[in-house]
């Protein structure tokens, strides 16, 4: 197929970032991730948008969704510049799903299915390499190089309290998005509780089948 247009859905910590990195490399597509885009613009002034807070930071640090108007504009701009892509972190509510329908067609919609307590364990143990952006886990996937281990950082919203709130927001807002794609017969459900390489085998095969 031409470069695939892939949507990856899943709760916080389901492994979207981990699998998207592999998809990007294997299928030569852009990784469009609203979380990273917002983290890079946490202090952007959005006060003219009639929002509750003046910057994305306040929403993100509490585990709440950043207003649709801000996020829709980021995704629209990124999609207009991509041929193939893996879209990660969007849509997170039904309004965003409707917006996305007007922006692009999709070739495959993946859903990484993971139990809630496992998600908490994964997120509170996640560490990031600020130099490469690589994702690690203190227990499941620690770095081999002690120099890398030394510089690892924890995301501000990966504390247990904020993680629980992000999961509540997911249940309330994003689970209906999963049902929306499922009802259309578009959802490819993947067992996200397997080891990362096994999840990858399923993800890769599912994308290839959609070709
Ligand atoms: P965002 O950055 O999108 O975070 P998220 O959806 O909460 O997802 P994560 O990045 O935390 O998890 P992931 O699924 O990528 O897991 P990962 O691969 O790292 O959003 C952050 C915030 O931005 C939101 O709260 C909101 O405020 C705002 N925002 C973003 N998009 C928005 C939108 N559309 N609208 C409004 N607001 C928006 O894996 C997690 C850990 O598990 C890692 O340590 C990894 O090593 C480990 N791991 C991965 N796979 C496995 C496996 N198979 N087995 C064992 N461990 C594994």
TrEMBL record:
SUPFAM superfamilies named in the record: Microbial and mitochondrial ADK, insert 'zinc finger' domain, P-loop containing nucleoside triphosphate hydrolases
Chain segments annotated as coiled-coil in the UniProt record: none
Major location category of this protein: cytoplasm
Binding site for AMP: 34, 39, 64-66, 89-92, 96, 155, 166
Quaternary structure annotation from Swiss-Prot or TrEMBL: Monomer.
Protein name from the UniProt record: Adenylate kinase
Keywords on record: ATP-binding, Cytoplasm, Kinase, Nucleotide biosynthesis, Nucleotide-binding, Transferase
Pathway membership: Purine metabolism; AMP biosynthesis via salvage pathway; AMP from ADP: step 1/1
GO cellular component: cytoplasm
Pfam family of the protein (one): ADK
């Amino acid at each position: 197929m031409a470069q695939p247009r892939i949507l990856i859905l899943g709760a916080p910590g389901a492994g979207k970032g981990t699998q998207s990195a592999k998809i990007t490399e294997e299928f030569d597509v852009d990784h469009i991730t609203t979380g990273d885009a917002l983290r890079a613009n946490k202090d952007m002034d959005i006060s003219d948008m009639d929002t509750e807070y003046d910057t994305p930071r306040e929403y993100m640090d509490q585990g709440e969704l950043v207003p649709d108007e801000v996020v829709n504009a980021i995704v629209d701009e990124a999609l207009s510049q991509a041929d193939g892509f893996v879209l990660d972190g969007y849509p997170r509510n039904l309004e965003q799903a409707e917006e996305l329908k007007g922006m692009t067609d999709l070739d495959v919609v993946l859903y990484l299915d993971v139990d809630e307590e496992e998600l908490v364990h994964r997120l509170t143990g996640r560490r990031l390499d600020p130099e490469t952006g690589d994702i690690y886990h203190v227990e499941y996937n620690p770095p081999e190089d002690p120099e890398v281990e030394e510089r690892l950082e924890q995301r501000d919203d990966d504390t247990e309290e904020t993680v629980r709130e992000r999961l509540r927001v997911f249940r309330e807002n994003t689970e209906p998005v999963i049902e929306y794609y499922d009802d259309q017969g578009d959802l490819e459900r993947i067992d996200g509780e397997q080891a990362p390489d096994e999840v990858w085998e399923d993800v890769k095969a599912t994308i290839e089948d959609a070709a």
